[in-house]
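thought: fold this chain, then report.
action: predict
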Amino acid sequence: MVKAIGTSVAIFVGLVVFGNHVALVSAPQQTAPGRQLYVEYCASCHGINLQGGNAQSLVDKIWQFGQGRGYVMQSIKYGLPHLGMPAYENTLSDRQIHQLIDYLFEAEAEYGAPQPDIPDRIETLDYKIKVEIFADGLEVPWSIDFIDTDRALITERPGRLRQVLGGTLQKDPVAGTPQVLSEGQGGLLDVAVDPDYAKNGWIYLAYSHALRQEGRPPAMTRLVRGRIKDNAWTDRQIIYEAPHTTYQTTRYHYGCRIVFDPDGFLYFGVGDRGHQDQAQDLTRPNGKIHRIHRDGRVPEDNPFVGTNEALPTIYAWGIRNPQGLAIHPVTGELWETEHGPLGGDEVNLIRPGLNYGWPVITYGRNYDGSPVSPIEEKQGMAQPVLYWKPSIAACGLDFYRGDLFPRWKNHLLAGALKYEEVRLLDVKDRRILHDEVILKNAGRVRDVAAGPDGAVYVVLNQPDKVLRLTPQ
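observation:
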């Protein structure tokens, strides 16, 4: 829209919904093509108001449906039908959409508001909750686990393991932890404390491990365990390393979460590593849930022990990118959340030997809008207990076991990167009866955990912090 003001002419744009955000700016000149597209296709619907009208501001630093270029591209190209935003895939070319994104990002950088403060109080259906910052000054924190009520461990994806002692984040990371391949989605991933830590002192780490060779080194998810003495990593043991012939040069879909069942078995997940068909190949570790003894030995009763060339650590298969694992406190059953592509994030009840279908069946589609598969169900392949469409980028999972929130006992806490949420899932008789958002827009939720003190801990990226939730 061109609006005359006295003798001067100012160019304004209106509001558009991308990821539930809207914006109005006087556009920088170098993004004129994107500005013109915005005016032509968006402004007439969404009005002229910098902070939004029918939806939120696009320059307030909150990207509810993902702030990366890929997420914004999805929102524009394929729309958000559940919010009334149309798809533009048949109206705008990819080049035009990228011009529009350039304009939005430049406008956000020039006119954007600062990241909003994290709320100190929130309210759910059951509780009024106090929100505190438990740890700050981190760099891409990925996971949290607890030795006891006074000692916590936090991984930072670039490769550092940090200790929180008596509520204070220690300045120096643990020395001597494994070297990681910190590229793309890779790095230092999960940390897990042995159920018998008081007796044996073992701590487990999962990370992206690269082979040493010239050029672009192939990598795969690897597990080690060790002990911390005087803030140094000691007694290291490799407990899982995939065959080197299965390593991949891609830099995403590593998994990985570590949990222990009541019998002491260790479970972890490895994503498909960008080679989706290999999730259906039992000779490959990627796209699988694995089960081992805590010292790395293979349990004799694993479902594929002695089966042709199948890897004996495999417990379940047909998995895309597992980002959450949790053991039910009462039944001992293994629950999992995983990323779908464009739609089709799943909650699964993992059972031995079952094929969970990826990519033969899925409720998602490729990021370019094409179908991954023409079918959503197939005999012999397990259905999810719950799926989200559109994707929420499910990340981090734990059952609540404490006493501070008694109404949440044995409910699942599930994080969401894309929607910046913590969700509370009411699990009964292997079904999910209710799904409630209990935290929203505090940041991208990478992990969520029930602490030994009964509080709920939330690991955030952007901002890089850990929150502690307690009843008000």
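thought: worth noting. Residues 121-471 form a domain with the Neuraminidase fold (CATH 2.120.10.30).
final: tokens above.
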